[in-house]
Design brief:
Elements (H helix, E strand, L loop, with lengths): L3 E14 L2 E14 L3 E5 L6 H8 L7 E7 L5 E3 L5 H8 L2 E4 L13 H12 L5 H14 L16 H13 L5 E5 L7 H18 L2 E5 L3 H7 L2 E6 L2 E7 H6 L4 H8 L40 H5 L4 E3 L5 E3 L3 H7 L2
Parallel strand pairs: 3-8, 3-9, 6-7, 7-8
Antiparallel strand pairs: 1-2, 1-4, 4-5, 9-10, 10-12, 11-12
Helix pairs in contact: 3-4, 3-5, 4-5
C-alpha cells in the first residue's frame, strides 16, 4: 500500500500591498498519498495557484507546515528548511506552469530549456549524457527530437506544454504540481495532454497535485478533490463521492454548472447571488455565508470546523450533516 508523500497543515499566505493585507490562503490542510492525483478546484482568485506555489516554496508561506516524505523514510519540512537542504529535495518536487507561452524562455532552444534542470542539479553529467537524457524524455512526451534545436515560438500551444512537461520530468521527480496545465489549450489538445499525464503517471510512478478551475478535467484525472473558496478549503474527499454527493453549498453550486453530454438529463442550475467578498476583508463566521442559500444566523457568527463526515470526506459547514441527509 502506498504511503503518504505530502502532508499540508494550516498553510497560510498573506500579501501586503500599500498597507492592505490580502488573505490569499487561510489555514489549508490536506494529505497526498504516493501515486495518486489530488485535484484542487475553485473560482479564479480563490488561492489555488498560490497554494501550489507555497507548497513547493516557489513563494514563501506566511504560516503552517508542508512535510514531504522522501525515500528511505526521511521527512522534510519544506517551508522552513535552509536553501542547502531544500536543494536536496528540489529534484523530487517539480511544477508544470499554467501558461506555456510565458513559462518558456524565448531566447533558449528547447534542448537548453529541458536540459537546464540537469545543469543545475547534476553537475557531474557530461554534455552528451545530458543531451541523451533530454532526447529520451522528449520522446516520452511526444516531441520530435529533430526539433530540439528550435525555439519555443516555432511550436504550437500543445507542443509548448509538452516542453514544459518534459522539463518537469527530466529530474525523475516524485511529485508534480500541475498549475492549470491544460487551461490555455484547445479542448482536443487538452485531452491529449491529460491522457499523456495519466500515462506518464503509470509509467514513472508519479504523484500529481492538479490545480484547475475546470471541473470536468478534475473529475477525469483526480483520485481526490479539494474545493477552495476565498482562500479556504471548504470540502475535500474522494472524487466519486464528492461529485455524486457534494456536502458543501459552494461545491453543490459548482457541480450544478457542469454541462452533461445528454439532452435527456436535466439539472437544477444554482445561481450564486452577490459577489465574492474582498479577500482583504473576509466576513466573520463562514466565509461563504454571504452567498449561501442555506445561510442561518450561526453561519454569520461562527467559523465552521473542517470535519470528517465519514470516509475521509471533509467539509467546513455547520449544517453538512443535515444537507447530507437531504442529499441536496
Amino acid at each position: 500500500m502506498a504511503g503518504k508523500i505530502l502532508e499540508v497543515r494550516g498553510i497560510k499566505k498573506d500579501f501586503i500591498s500599500k498597507g492592505v493585507k490580502v488573505h490569499a490562503v487561510s489555514d489549508v490542510s490536506f494529505d497526498v498519498m504516493e501515486g495518486e492525483t489530488v485535484g484542487i478546484v475553485g473560482e479564479s482568485g480563490c488561492g489555488k495557484t498560490t497554494l501550489g506555489r507555497c507548497i513547493l516554496r516557489a513563494i514563501p508561506a506566511t504560516g503552517g507546515s508542508v512535510t514531504y516524505y522522501g525515500t528511505e523514510n526521511k521527512k522534510y519540512d519544506v517551508l522552513w528548511m535552509n536553501k542547502k537542504e531544500l536543494k536536496e529535495i528540489r529534484k523530487d518536487l517539480q511544477m508544470i506552469f499554467q501558461n506555456p507561452y510565458s513559462s518558456l524562455d524565448p531566447r533558449m532552444t528547447v534542448l537548453d530549456i529541458i536540459k537546464e534542470p540537469l545543469k543545475a542539479n547534476h553537475r557531474g553529467m557530461s554534455v552528451k549524457e545530458m543531451e541523451e537524457k533530454v532526447k529520451k524524455i522528449a520522446g516520452k512526451v511526444g516531441l520530435d527530437v529533430s526539433y530540439l534545436n528550435r525555439y519555443p515560438h516555432a511550436f504550437s500551444g500543445g507542443q509548448r506544454q509538452r516542453i514544459g512537461i518534459a522539463r518537469a520530468l527530466i529530474l525523475n521527480p516524485r511529485l508534480i504540481v500541475c498549475d492549470e496545465a491544460v487551461s490555455a489549450l484547445d479542448v482536443s489538445i487538452q485531452a491529449q495532454v491529460i491522457n499523456l499525464l495519466k500515462d506518464l503517471q503509470k509509467e514513472m510512478h508519479l504523484t500529481y497535485l492538479f490545480i484547475s478551475h475546470d471541473l470536468s478535467v478534475v473529475e477525469h484525472i483526480s483520485d481526490k478533490v479539494g474545493v477552495m473558496y476565498l482562500g479556504k478549503m471548504v470540502e475535500f474527499g474522494q472524487t466519486d463521492g464528492l461529485f455524486e454527493h457534494p456536502l458543501h453549498p459552494y461545491t453543490e453550486a459548482l457541480m450544478s454548472s457542469v454541462l452533461v453530454a445528454d439532452p435527456s438529463v436535466t439539472r437544477e442550475r444554482i445561481r450564486l447571488e452577490g459577489e465574492i467578498p474582498n479577500p482583504s476583508n473576509i466576513p466573520e463566521g463562514c466565509c461563504f455565508h454571504t452567498r449561501c442559500r442555506y445561510c442561518k444566523e450561526r453561519c454569520r457568527q461562527e467559523v465552521p470546523e473542517f470535519k470528517n463526515m465519514g470516509g475521509d470526506h471533509y467539509v467546513a459547514c455547520h449544517y453538512a450533516e443535515e444537507l447530507k441527509l437531504k442529499g441536496f
